[in-house]
Design goal:
The chain contains 1 helix and 3 strands. By secondary structure, the protein is of the alpha+beta class.
């Protein structure tokens, strides 16, 4: 990544978000450049709730 702009912890303590500028590079060639790219990581509150559809 070129530049991490922000890393934010959510107020309810259930996850984090990050925003950055960066580039996807394959074999030394930049194939995609991202500006203000954001990603959010949320805490799973109930594992059963999210895995229930797999177990059926």
């Amino acid at each position: 990544m070129k530049d991490i702009k922000t890393i934010t912890r959510k107020t309810d303590d259930d996850g984090y978000s990050a925003a950055a500028d960066g580039a996807l590079i394959v074999d030394g060639i930049c194939i995609y450049e991202m500006t203000n790219f954001s990603v959010v990581f949320n805490k799973i509150k109930s594992r059963q709730k999210y895995l229930g559809f797999i177990q059926k």
